[in-house]
Design a protein that fits this description.
Shape: globular
CATH class of the largest domain: Mainly Alpha
CATH architecture of the largest domain: Orthogonal Bundle
Number of strands: 12
CATH topology of the largest domain: Transferase(Phosphotransferase), domain 1
Mean pLDDT: 80
Largest sheet: 4 strands, antiparallel
Radius of gyration: 18 Å
Helix content: 25-40%
Number of domains: 2
């Protein structure tokens, strides 16, 4: 959904991040709509745990979002660097900050619809930021009934933990999307059953996705896996993941079932 550059705001003498639509999506009205939705969703949900948007503008008919410059790593890149699951105190600290940010969005009636490790950013100074409201919707609208998208899974990071599509600044850029009429919105492995079924959504869809993220942080593996989106969707709808207590001894010792 975007190409991110580090830049300098000459008027206010500050470093910022500029997020542009990729050139191939510049004339796609749905991509433009999601791009604007990302900016509006972040502004409406203003909170310390949500990436701050300074403005939206365009240069030579190319729209861009001016964002706070975040230094650190996405949660997905951080998890890829680890040989074992995150310690439970760290999982809880990250989870609490994600919950605080989601609560701010949900209070404003905004549903993120794409909570996943790639959209959670761990800054160098310790704060956790929720990124990319490009698939967000207002709870009162019926956008989930429109033709929509299923996002491709995030490719493996390189040796430094960076996405092949983005080398560091804010979030790794979202990867190419497959647009199919009548398909659900989100990233296959982190979608709620209601998203998959195309049902009307409320804030609980984000909580289900957050639960999958917590499972992955605590166990070091995804709750629902498969070679295709269809197989992953079937697993979410029909199967129960292996208990985290069985997969991780530190979880079993700390949290009694």
């Amino acid at each position: 959904m975007g190409v991110v550059y580090e830049a300098e705001d000459l008027k206010l003498a500050r470093r910022v991040a500029l997020k542009f639509l990729p050139e191939e999506l510049g004339d796609d009205p749905k991509a433009l709509l999601r791009f604007e939705r990302e900016a509006k969703g972040c502004v409406r949900s203003h909170h310390p745990n949500i990436c701050t948007i300074h403005g939206i503008d365009e240069y030579e008919h190319k729209p861009f979002i001016v964002m706070e410059l975040l230094e650190g790593n996405s949660l997905s890149a951080q998890l890829a660097l680890l040989s074992e699951p995150l310690p439970l105190p760290t999982v809880l600290e990250i989870a609490i900050e994600i919950c605080d940010g989601l609560q701010a969005a949900h209070t404003k009636g905004i549903i993120h619809r794409d909570i996943k490790p790639a959209n959670i950013f761990l800054t160098n100074h310790g704060a956790v930021k929720i990124l990319d409201f490009g698939l967000a919707k207002l709870a009162a609208t019926q956008e989930d009934q429109e033709p929509s998208v299923v996002k491709a899974e995030d490719p493996a990071p390189d040796a430094l933990g960076h996405s092949p599509r983005d080398k560091s600044l804010n979030c790794p850029a979202n990867h190419p999307t497959l647009t199919v009429a009548g398909t659900p919105v989100g990233t296959a492995s982190y979608m709620s059953p209601e998203q998959i079924s195309g049902e009307h959504l409320d804030a609980r869809t984000d909580l289900f996705s957050l639960g999958i993220v917590l499972y992955e942080m605590a166990t070091g593996r995804r709750a629902f896996e498969g070679p295709t989106a269809a197989i992953v969707h079937e697993a979410i709808l029909q199967r129960t993941p292996t208990s985290a207590h069985e997969l991780a001894s530190h979880v079993r010792a700390a949290w009694k079932p």
